[in-house]
Amino acid sequence: MEDRVTMDLFKHRAEFAPCFPDPAKPDASWLPHYYVQALGFAMQLSLFHAVDYTAEPHREEAAGELTDKGTPLPKKDDDVPTASSGRSSSPPRPTGRMTFECILFSDPKYQSLPKLVRIGNVNLKTMEKWCKQYRAGGYVKRVHHDVVVSRDAYTAQYRKLKEKYMYWVEQWEETTDPQKFVYEDVGIAAFLLAMWESEREQLIKQFPDKYNSDYRQSFVDLGCGNGFLVYLLVSEGYRGQGIDIQKRKIWDKFPANVRNVEEPIHPETAKYEGVDWILANHSDELTPWVPFIAARTNARFWVLPCCEWNFDKRFTAKRKNLSRYLTYLEYVKEIATACGYKVEVEPMRIPSTRNVSIVGRTRTIDVNNPADLETITRNQEELLKKARFTTFQPRARDQKSHDAQCSACDESHESHEVEDDSEAPEAATHSDVDQAEPSSKRQKLE
């Protein structure tokens, strides 16, 4: 995704405009989900008093300062301390109001004001956070994207998949939100395909007698839910199946070569011979078992934790200075390490508030060494003992579905507990923003 950025340092304004393939016919459906769905948007800082740009030490501070708590600033000039007022012997600290503006598409289908309000608010809050951190001694990025897969590789896959499969949004038959689930699974599939292509290239280089360009990894998706991810991966030429406790209506819409199986999973003994990858997207109570199953299968794994579950009960622990979700992520990483995997973490570019995936594609043990395998067995037994595990009970078919449960989980955690420094994050609607539909196509949020 490329865009044109225009910055005016003296006006404290930055404008962003996506570069469409055909500028005369801007198509909103071409934009990736993580980009603001608008013809253009801007960030504007309006200062409440003049700034002397000849005073070099204050130049950067003037361009970035916000109010400490994001509250409305004084509207009267005499409410703002100045150097001439006698209340301060040093040059004034610049203060002002930050606004977010956007130009909507002409198509009413893409004039989603509530969503733009959420995006505008989270961007304003992010700008405030960055400015505070700058004043405190420098901004330190906490969330690192594109660790396992490069952004270019991901974007190339995402664009291709979006063009091929976005029509599913219009013919979605589940009760869940297609805008969330279709875009989310397309984003996940783009990541997996990019990762598997890179892995395939390495395998061909290392083992040219065993692998060639026709090789495609195999997979099993545990707790596959609507099975759309399975459909995408199989449609792109990969071999695999999904397994879930409950069949979904949409399964019948998929081609015959897309195999989603309705059956319970017993993670204490589950093993999938000949499978290269174990996948688990918001797999709920199966999540902590994924490294166990992958180690037993001698496969790699990718898991996207959502609702916090231990081996046979809800996960309730919380570490000091960490949210329960972050505590849970650390717990799943510890399980993977104990199962003999080098742990990699990749925040996914998907429309979900819980988007941190854990990848185990490299073993830290020799799988042909009995002593190493015995060590893994002891580690797993110790984990189950510490968790006070008794027995795993598969979810009953009439219980709340995986898809609905994860949707509710997302909604209850809209204020993302993992700090996201991506370019266009989304956040919960801010109560201070007027959500009445304005007559103009240019919207401004403060």
Please tell me about this protein's structure.
There is one protein chain. By secondary structure, the protein is α/β, with parallel strands linked by helices. Helices cover 30% and strands 16% of the residues. It contains 9 helices and 12 strands. The protein has helices spanning 59-64, 113-136, 151-165, 178-206, 228-235, 290-297, 324-338, 370-386, 402-412; strands spanning 3-8, 13-18, 40-47, 96-103, 218-222, 239-244, 259-262, 277-281, 300-304, 341-347, 356-363, 442-445. The strands form 2 sheets. Strands 7-6-5-8-9-11-10 form a 7-stranded mixed sheet, sandwiched between helices. A 5-stranded antiparallel sheet has the order 1-2-3-4-12, covered by helices on one side. Helix 5 (228-235) links the parallel strand 5 and strand 6 (239-244). The protein is globular, with a radius of gyration of 25 Å. The relative contact order is 0.12.
Keywords:
30% helix; alpha/beta; single chain; globular; 446 residues; five-stranded antiparallel sheet; disordered C terminus
Helix content: 25-40%
Strand percentage, roughly?
Answer: 15-25%
**Oligomeric state:** single chain
Most strands sheet: 7 strands, mixed
**What Rg, in angstroms, do the CA atoms define?**
25 Å
Q: What is the number of helices?
A: 9
Overall number of strands: 12
For the largest beta sheet, what order do the strands appear in spatially?
7-6-5-8-9-11-10
